[in-house]
Amino acid sequence: MQATPPVFDGHNDCLLRLPDDDPESFLTGRESGHLDFPRARDGNFAGGLFALFVSPSPDTTPREQRWVQTEDGSRLDPPPQLRPSYAQEVIERLLSRLETALEASGGRVELAESVPELRNCLDDGTLATVLHFEGAEPIEPDLSNLESYYDRGLRSLGLVWSRPNQFGYGVPFEFPASPDTGPGLTEEGSALVNQCNDLGIVVDLAHLNERGFWDVADISTDPLVVSHAGVHDICPSTRNLTGEQLDAVAESGGLVGITFAVNAIRPDGERDTDTSVETLVDHFEYVADCIGIDHVAVGSDFDGAEIPDPVGDVAGLPEVFEELAERGFDAADRRKVASENWLRVLDETWR
Ligand code: ZN
């Protein structure tokens, strides 16, 4: 019996990797990377949140781009915040890649803005893209442009990446370390959560520090969503979730998309792709055992992270589902992990 139902995936950075002069390579296939249309078909990848992420301008140093730990383990000052106008320009470029690829697909790939559209895609084999920002830098501090992005398809918003912005504080890359790395949401951050609730935009808590997480848990009226993360008890990275955070996700009716990023799943936190599928599936199993099968889903981070060699790319998704089946996840459980949990949460959040 086929172990892999159609998969809806909570996070990929594929759009960042497509060349501006050839976004159609998504359809024809790419030599490198993790995700394109032909390989998606091979792996039963039915759709997912497609992230738009703003890198600092190329003339900045690595030190100015991400918040990192020094060799001796001490924490440096955070990188400078990006200007909204700069972030908006980058977003336009990424959006035009997506639009070009959608047009060239002749209906094989579609932008999904509602759960019925998403279900239609899953039923008829159209690849569904849901628009997500990883980091709210393009949003003006007074939120005046949020609704216009919603009108263009934005349905999920990560408040932060691993850096501070006008709304909150992303965690620095640190291991082993607690996700409690600094202050909670700013006033603008709280207002942004409220407005996302009103519009029906998922507030994604991936990479948000722990105080920010609890602020959102206090004020949000929607299920808590962490699109891509691992279990802190297994891999104590700042980017992973503690037991208390997992409990809060379950209480809200939300979900965690399990990341495939090796440095967030390996108990030693190393960026080593010689990592087994078993190590990855340990996180799925832990979350299911700890807070229930209704709250665990997929959040691969294809094209945004180094992933286990035995998975390799999106075509390797069946490896994960075979291992889930080995561990006693029956067909109904696997359908929940593959897409039904995401669809339930999106249905409760989008309106
Ligand atoms: Zn990420």
Describe the structure.
This protein is of the alpha/beta class. It contains 14 helices and nine strands. Strands 1, 2, 3, 4, 5 and 6 form a six-stranded parallel β-sheet that branches. Strand 3, helix 6 (115-124) and strand 4 (127-134) form a beta-alpha-beta unit. Helix 12 (277-291) packs across helix 13 (317-326). The protein is globular. The relative contact order is 0.15. Residues 134, 206-207, 228, 301, 304 line the site of zinc ion. Zinc ion (ZN) is lined by residues 134, 206-207, 228, 301, 304.
Order of helices and strands: EHHHEHHEHEHEHEHEHEHHEHH
Broad shape: globular
The largest sheet is: 6 strands, parallel
Estimate the strand proportion. Answer: 5-15%
Give the oligomeric state.
single chain
pLDDT < 50 runs, ≥5 residues = none
The first-to-last residue Cα distance is: 37 Å
Give a short overview.
39% of the residues lie in helices and 13% in strands. The chain contains 14 helices and nine strands. The chain has helices at residues 14-17, 25-28, 37-43, 62-65, 84-104, 115-124, 146-151, 187-199, 210-219, 243-251, 262-265, 277-291, 317-326, 331-349, and strands at residues 7-12, 45-52, 109-111, 127-134, 154-158, 202-204, 225-229, 255-258, 296-298.
Which features characterize this protein?
9 strands, 351 residues, alpha/beta
What does the secondary structure layout of this molecule look like, with pairings?
Elements: E1 7-12, H1 14-17, H2 25-28, H3 37-43, E2 45-52, H4 62-65, H5 84-104, E3 109-111, H6 115-124, E4 127-134, H7 146-151, E5 154-158, H8 187-199, E6 202-204, H9 210-219, E7 225-229, H10 243-251, E8 255-258, H11 262-265, H12 277-291, E9 296-298, H13 317-326, H14 331-349
Parallel strand pairs: 1-2, 2-4, 3-4, 4-5, 5-6, 7-8, 8-9
Helix pairs in contact: 12-13
